[in-house]
Structure prediction request, 136 residues.
Amino acid sequence: MKTVNINFLSDILGPLIGTADMDDMYEKYKDVNPNDSNQIKLIIASILKPYFEHRPEKYKIAAKLALAYYLTTKKTDFGSIYDSCLVVFEHPDNPRDFFVWIWEVFFPKENFNIIEVNEYKEIDDIKEPLLLASKN
Prediction:
């Protein structure tokens, strides 16, 4: 049985976490349309993707699996995860779209749908992303 950790969904937002409290970030992103997929994908590509790509391979595998699982099953409140990160711009009207756009930027031309979701066990270990991010 494979495990998926919901905490990777917020961890992959790392560089944007807490930016709602930063005046310079507010000025830079105040005109962002959160429903404009092209605009948001540019932000994801320039800020989140480099952050993700510099993580160790084990982190990337676990994060990708968690993202695929939760996008497939829709078993989480994507808006709450996004909002808890205090990102400088609002999430799209459908918060799940933001995470779909992350998938599309991080893993172009790959399908996130998991067929055998019953082979996965969900865990909630807040330390795992940090632990895997610190290992090579």
Residues 2-133 form one domain. The CA atoms of residues 31 and 89 lie 9 Å apart.
